[in-house]
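User: Sequence for Glycoside hydrolase family 13 protein below. Tokens please.
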Amino acid sequence: MGKLKKDKKTRSFMQTIALSTLVLGTSLLYAPASSSAYAATNDNNVEWNGLFHDQGPVYDSAPEPTSAQTVTLKFRTFKGDTTGVNIKYYDTADGSFRVIPMSWVSGDSTGTFDYWQGTIPASSSRKYYRFQITDGSSSVWYNANGPSASEPSSGDFHIIPNFKTPDWMKNGVMYQIFPDRFYNGDSSNDVQTGAYTYDGTSTEKKAWGSSVYAGSGHTNNLVFFGGDLAGVNQKLGYIKQTLGANIIYLNPIFKSPSNHKYDTQDYMAVDPAFGTNETLKALSSSVHSTANGEKGYLVLDGVFNHTGDTHTWFDKYNQSSSLGAFESQSSQWSNYYTFQSWPNTYASFLGFNSLPKLDYGASGSPVRNQIYNNSDSVAKTYVKAPYNIDGWRLDAPQYTDAGGADAGGGNGGSLVNHQIWSEFRSAVKSVNGNAAIFGEYWGNANSWTNQGNQWDSATNFDGFTQPVSEWITGKDFNSNAASISTSGFDSWLRGTRANYPTNVQQAMSNHLSNHDISRFGERAGGDIWKTYLALIFQMTYIGTPTIYYGDEYGMMGGADPDNRRTFDWSQGTTSNRAVALTQKLISIRNQYPALRTGSFMTLQTDDANKIYSYGRFDKENRIAVVLNNDSTGHSVTVPVWQLSMQNGSVVTDKLTGKTYTVQSGTVTLTVDGHYGAILAQ
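Assistant: Structure tokens for Glycoside hydrolase family 13 protein:
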């Protein structure tokens, strides 16, 4: 990155400027005595602090263009600072760069900034663009990674024609449920102690609220508490009305011997412990109904990389009347799996013999047909009537390949892996073009999202879960000591946003915890104020906020299976302050499209006081979010001039109802420790 540098305005108006030395990317922010102090001149020096572009509604005319739509882009500079701005874009159609000069179109309402505009022609090819900003002999480059002194080689903005991610994902709040631990709505289907035996051990029924660890002679995966789909249905009022979440994501629900159901025995049957297929139909109908709040959406967990060893196709324990691949080499399903030495040596998920990997073979293979191609395939059956689910969360999809020991497991997968998910997308979208497909991935998932033909988004471990945990709790998501500064937090977020097109960013699943990692509340040491702070960020950041059941009240829990405790329904009420805050935050998010699909702009990073502020804005609203990650309260002066907030205008903190007046381009307020403010106008 380029060196830190002072703006010319800073040199000219030093006596009238209140310094706050707040880092934005690689330049310094200064709070001006008046926004008019930012009238710049052409002096062969581009001022980085005034530069901005993203693919929000103010700066991009078509974030999801068709192949017939032109894309008109705007770019912001300080008023009178630059002699020219160019768009430089790479077109994959011919592998060439093109340059489009931008024209000045207007200034902002405060007289601080200029806006430049240029249009990229319509076509069906993917494109990547950056900006070159000149002031005489000086030149600066700008892309999704921010400004740089030299031309960047990565991190450009994306244009992917005919690629649309579901608007309901962009605008919704997701609630993730591990069914056995959420609510017991039908005790008649509870799995009792000794109900059956799997792999040498038997089931164990435990009382709600007791330890999730198995007793003597049992295993953790066969401990059951009785949660089921009827329970989810009965608690939809809590999810949709009390909290305001409108997307339900269920961990696997299909027939399986374990409590987690990632070892599928029958894709076409709901597990009896959770109810029946009729129960699923009833739940789907209730989720989509507006009776318990606004219309909802239902997402199921698609475990398509592997089956369980009890599946009829494999049938390791001779439970089926038909011969499975483990029982006979002449089985009709013998080519569904890959055997190195039949029957005991076969490709399995991460070496777990209970999870034999499916062999997808070539296009049109029996496995591909069963999972997604046929009209009665698993993926299509549940997306269409009478189930009408709204999408699939894909479990371990980077490993799905033509066979072998997790052959598609590298970053980016294999060509066959990408072919599978391209075919899967086509199959699912042919039934419901508005269905969501998001993959479980723990790193940079852009090789599956950025072609526009596979996933809509992914689980945002890398761009949300990990940095939030390290910044607020001082631990990574596995509870290992790891901390980052506020400026490091901002840099991490910027870098991971740059990995994806904006419409993918807006549909990324942003979770504080999930069923595979320790609970956020545990990492926070039980400090509920850290949960408050995390919730404020979660509900105001780019992406789909995803609440793992119980995180809204700070549920504790270590590594698996302790992260799958039963929901404490004595906490499931707005008398719990964290639940009440979650309700308020979701309501605020729903009130302002700027918090869902608006631009994101860093305003302030203060490492000493652990203050982070950023703007979310669209054509209708400007919002400054302030986060205090310190244990004590601080007076914070927020540089809202960056959002073109006019002096004398009023902002309202949507959390407290307090109002503040913009003075000298700033708003000053006190923010409690491990808390925040949402300043809207």
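The domain at 1-38+598-681 is CATH 2.60.40.1180 (Immunoglobulin-like).
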